[in-house]
């Protein structure tokens, strides 16, 4: 690689984030260029002398253990950035889905550059974790984005944002137990995009019947956008009430809202109560040390699956209908373990 190309790369890296000699060497090596520390110091001098714009200057900040941090400072009048702001940015970056990070990289790069511009103009002593190498997102259970899903996501997002009806022609599979009475194709009034457990869902109403419906974007296989608008404010209140009665996003088996009581073993209960599962959740520590959980919600496939996640460390106390469904699924698991056949069956779909 020629020196001019290398200097352009170094300038680009510094424009995006503060860099140390080590981090610059790693970045350049990843791009196929091996540069000695001595040469890199000379390159940094050249960048500072010949590559900076009128409003820029190359600053050197001393960190712990005499580590040198090179920063392009821009005099753009931006507000001061502190280490708490940096950590907040990195945490948000950590939480971005892999599919979003790849599919919307150009947009995210713009935000990164804006943040870098504000950071470089501040007097903060960076905490050394700017590159995010000390953070890891496992992306466990996330939907896998491909171009087809990205296109579908963008189209449905447009419909929700602009209050346009969608004709749902075909769905492949059913992760949320949709109504048995649904006849395809049907007109759907989309009102909310929901992110839940690594996937994206669209919530709204079936036109005509006014039934509240949540669909997994992954399962929507054929649809048509329309320019048909709909009044959403009044129906949004109805939809919100329906969603609050669900445990997660799955369709409830009926229109009833139950008081669900679950007893957890002490250690499991301590873990459960430290997390958010439903807006109605409340807990009580029993004399035995076990933890009792109370929920006010409907019964659906997601609730049963969530209970089974805790294996033998939870007991269903009430209501009786939940006990019955829990036992039914237990028997189903036993039957499958003793059979050579595994088949799909959804007994949770309401009429």
Q: How do you describe this structure in short?
A:
The chain has 351 residues and is an alpha+beta fold.
Question: What would you note in describing this structure?
Answer:
This protein folds into three domains: 3-121, Arc Repressor Mutant, subunit A (Orthogonal Bundle); 147-244, SH3 type barrels, CATH 2.30.30; 258-337, no CATH class. The protein has a five-stranded antiparallel β-sheet. Strands 9-10-8-11 form a four-stranded antiparallel β-sheet, covered by helices on one side. A two-stranded antiparallel ribbon has the order 1-2. The mean pLDDT is 88. It is elongated. It is of the alpha+beta class and 351 residues long. The chain starts with a helix and ends in a 14-residue tail after the last helix. A hairpin with a 5-residue loop joins strand 9 (282-285) and strand 10. The chain is 39% helix and 23% strand. The protein contains eleven helices and eleven strands.
General shape = elongated
Q: Could you tell me the number of beta strands?
A: 11
Question: What gyration radius follows from the Cα positions, in whole Å?
Answer: 27 Å
| Major beta-sheet overview | 5 strands, antiparallel
- Could you tell me the CATH topology label of the largest domain: Arc Repressor Mutant, subunit A
Strand and helix layout:
Layout: H1 3-16, H2 21-30, H3 37-50, E1 56-62, E2 68-74, H4 83-94, H5 98-103, H6 105-121, H7 147-162, E3 164-171, E4 186-196, E5 199-206, E6 212-216, E7 220-229, H8 233-244, E8 258-264, H9 266-273, E9 282-285, E10 291-297, H10 301-309, E11 314-318, H11 320-337
Antiparallel strand pairs: 1-2, 3-4, 3-7, 4-5, 5-6, 8-10, 8-11, 9-10
Helix pairs in contact: 1-3
InterPro entries: WCX_dom (IPR057727)
Domain WCX: 257-332
Protein name: WCX domain-containing protein
